[in-house]
Amino acid sequence: MTRPTPETLAHSVRRARNAAEGAGDADHTRAATPAAPAVRPAPAQVSGAGSLVRSLEALGVDVVFGIPGGAILPAYDPLYDSTVRHILVRHEQGAGHAATGYAQATGRVGVCIATSGPGATNLVTPIADAYMDSVPLVAITGQVARPAIGTDAFQEADIQGITLPITKHNFLVQDAAEIPRVLAEAFHLASTGRPGPVLVDIPKDVLQAPTTFAWPPVLDLPGYRPTLHPHGKQIREAARLMSSARRPVLYVGGGVLKAGATEGLRRLAELTGIPVVTTLMALGAFPDSHRQHLGMPGMHGTVAAVYGLQKADLIVALGARFDDRVTGKLDSFAPEAAVVHADIDPAEIGKNRHADVPIVGDARHVIDELLTAVTAEQAAGSGADLTDWWAQLDDLRERYPLGYEEPADGTLSPQYVIKRLGKIAGPDAIYVAGVGQHQMWASQFISYEKPQTWLNSGGLGTMGYAVPAAMGAKVGRPDVVVWAIDGDGCFQMTNQELATCALEGIPVKIAVINNGNLGMVRQWQTLFYGERYSNTDLGTHKHRIPDFVKLAEALGCVGLRCETAEDVDKTIEAAMSINDAPVVIDFVVGKDAMVWPMVAAGTSNDEIMFARGVRPAFDEDEL
Question: Cβ contacts of residue 47 below 8 Å, gap of 6+?
Answer without folding.
Answer: 74, 78, 176, 207, 208, 209, 210, 211
